[in-house]
Amino acid sequence: MMRGIWTRETVALLLIAACLPLAAFWLWYGGPGAAARLGLAALVLAAWQLVFLLVRAQPVCVVGALTALAVAMLAPEGLGPWRLVLGISFGAVMGELVFGGWGRNVVHPATVALSFLGFGFPAFAWPEIALPVAWAAIPAGLIGLVSGVMPVGVLGAAALLGAAATGAGLVDPGVLPAAGVVLVLLVADPVCSASTRPGQWLTGALYAALTGLFAAGWHGAAPVQITVAAALLTALAAPALDETALAVWHANRRRRHGRT
Amino acid sequence: MFAPGPRSGLTPRFAAPPPALPDRVEPDLDITEEAGIVAGLGPAPRVELLAEEDAHVARGAPVARLRDAPEICLVAPMAARIGRVSLLRGHRLSEIVLFADAGGDALRHDPSGARTEAGLRGLMQRAGLWPSLRRRPFGGMPGTAERPAAIFVMATDTRPFAPDPRLALDGREAAVARGLHALAELTDGPVFLCRAPGPGPFTAQAAAPRLREVICGRRHPQGAVGLRAHALCPAGLDRPVWDIHAEDAAALGTLLDTGQMPPTRLVAVCGPALRTARLVRTQPGADLRGLTRRIAQPGAHELLSGTPLDGHPAHWLSPRDRQVTALPRAAAPGAPHWLLAALTRSARPAPVIPTAALEQSFGGALPAAAFVRALGAGDDEGAMRLGLLSLLEEDVALADYVLGGTAGLAGQLRAMLERIRTEHAA
């Protein structure tokens, strides 16, 4: 029988393909240290996927490569391998694998890992996102949009609101590189953002608003720290945004048809 | 917020042979030597036979009637000798095989009583046209006295390889108009005529009361009944909605004019296991092997009644189908290695990732990800709020295809509908 291609693995591969420009620029500017962090993150994630494959018959998913890239790019610097392993393990297990794997999770495992590392080891400095790396987020987002694996509303609303706020002088432009990278890597994940079209626009807008709010009021925070915190709160709010969109949809149908 | 726009939907591509004569649109007449009377999808109906094996019957003569609704007859699609009757336990219909009778006659019904609604229903039920109607929710033919909230007449079909209904209706404008008028008698609600963009062959004459034209785009599932019903007049437990193909509406018009059902319907024969595609006029219940024998490629193949998306392996053309798909027979999959099976057993159904492809596979008509999650979670009430009762398996077939067949949406939808039907009946 003939079948279409949009399985979980296809979407995961397309997301990885979309983020390849980002990974290439980051590795180019990060050098062997960045490659080592990426290798370590990938190894830890693969190990946990293997554990859940053997214990809970949960198939592995290649999207772990994207999680590894996000953690390696955005985790605080100078943590050392053990703290990094601890943070990645917490994020992978509590953020994704206990829910049944990618597709059934609520928050991106990299967001969970980064938040854990940020809260647990606050003395370590967050990384700076080099400008060329941030520019590479644009083709990543475009590839995701064209292939349909990244939600239009999330990217569109965040980009529009971010541009408007920056133009109006409400947001420090220094936050934008980190905001763009986090948007593509963490917020635009199709599983962890809202699934309804209005909910996706609200998700993008909320991320942009939270980033602007933290940038204005969170003194001393690094841009990556600000944007990861905004991504975490946005992911936690996404189901509520979906519910809101569905409630409006139900109300419209009730008004039009007398039923849903 | 969620409405099928003119560009929503997808155009799935399947390998297909070219037509034998690309410029020719006139279909061949191909009455197969054998035909079968079978039930549609779903539980087989309990029947009472009206003709025995070896009996000669005229075209349109009743061969069996439903035990639970004796007014509804299953009729012979051609003048024939009844070759074999196969019934399942409890007198449930398996198949009735007919052999063409060259010198046979056609039964003429008396349409004079169809001026009243009861007479019209009786005529449709006696003449074998009632099974062409399908109800939502749950599917299947409607009850004899059921009165729908709306009727959808489908003059468009956006499924891959589907024949253009306009070809079937060419030159039959008056019959379509008469059929639409008659259908309007069966409901107090609107009659939606769903058709492709461009000049319609029936708008001028088909000014039936409460007729509303709906222009559907060319991408699938814009021509899917369920999604149209969901957008225009959602079905409910106490508000059934019916649908009928426009060619069957024209057949109703012909029946009312002449007392006889048209002998053929337009059927597309295609698929990658054929050398050429065909467009034929053949009888309902036609033998699929007879339609494909001369054009099949060498090698084993499988014949589906229906489309590559929602067709099912069959010997005879199913009552509502207008398409035959021939696929190369795939080798039976071997049993997976026990370790691999054990390690991946919790993956079914596979998680569905919300993408633009998933949304477009529902034509943007409903919140696709929320609906698919409600189906997967067995959330009956949530799925009903999202429009489950307007949908049948064929409406989620494209989404099932797009998701690589790993989600099992059609099975989940049918299980949920049966659960709701059981609870509603209790």
TrEMBL record, chain A:
<feature type="transmembrane region" description="Helical">
    <location>
        <begin position="56"/>
        <end position="75"/>
    </location>
</feature>
<dbReference type="Pfam" id="PF03116">
    <property type="entry name" value="NQR2_RnfD_RnfE"/>
</dbReference>
<keyword id="KW-0288">FMN</keyword>
<feature type="transmembrane region" description="Helical">
    <location>
        <begin position="175"/>
        <end position="194"/>
    </location>
</feature>
<keyword id="KW-0813">Transport</keyword>
<keyword id="KW-0285">Flavoprotein</keyword>
<dbReference type="GO" id="GO:0005886">
    <property type="term" value="C:plasma membrane"/>
</dbReference>
<dbReference type="GO" id="GO:0055085">
    <property type="term" value="P:transmembrane transport"/>
</dbReference>
<keyword id="KW-0597">Phosphoprotein</keyword>
<dbReference type="InterPro" id="IPR004338">
    <property type="entry name" value="NqrB/RnfD"/>
</dbReference>
<keyword id="KW-0812">Transmembrane</keyword>
<feature type="transmembrane region" description="Helical">
    <location>
        <begin position="133"/>
        <end position="163"/>
    </location>
</feature>
<protein>
    <submittedName>
        <fullName>NADH-quinone reductase</fullName>
    </submittedName>
</protein>
<feature type="transmembrane region" description="Helical">
    <location>
        <begin position="201"/>
        <end position="220"/>
    </location>
</feature>
<keyword id="KW-1133">Transmembrane helix</keyword>
<keyword id="KW-0472">Membrane</keyword>
<feature type="transmembrane region" description="Helical">
    <location>
        <begin position="106"/>
        <end position="126"/>
    </location>
</feature>
<feature type="transmembrane region" description="Helical">
    <location>
        <begin position="226"/>
        <end position="249"/>
    </location>
</feature>
<keyword id="KW-1278">Translocase</keyword>
TrEMBL record, chain B:
<feature type="region of interest" description="Disordered">
    <location>
        <begin position="1"/>
        <end position="24"/>
    </location>
</feature>
<dbReference type="Pfam" id="PF24836">
    <property type="entry name" value="NQRA_2nd"/>
</dbReference>
<feature type="domain" description="NqrA second alpha/beta">
    <location>
        <begin position="118"/>
        <end position="261"/>
    </location>
</feature>
<protein>
    <submittedName>
        <fullName>Na(+)-translocating NADH-quinone reductase subunit A</fullName>
    </submittedName>
</protein>
<dbReference type="GO" id="GO:0006814">
    <property type="term" value="P:sodium ion transport"/>
</dbReference>
<feature type="domain" description="Na(+)-translocating NADH-quinone reductase subunit A C-terminal">
    <location>
        <begin position="267"/>
        <end position="314"/>
    </location>
</feature>
<dbReference type="InterPro" id="IPR008703">
    <property type="entry name" value="NqrA"/>
</dbReference>
<dbReference type="Pfam" id="PF11973">
    <property type="entry name" value="NQRA_SLBB"/>
</dbReference>
<dbReference type="InterPro" id="IPR022615">
    <property type="entry name" value="NqrA_C_domain"/>
</dbReference>
<dbReference type="GO" id="GO:0016655">
    <property type="term" value="F:oxidoreductase activity, acting on NAD(P)H, quinone or similar compound as acceptor"/>
</dbReference>
<dbReference type="InterPro" id="IPR056148">
    <property type="entry name" value="NQRA_2nd"/>
</dbReference>
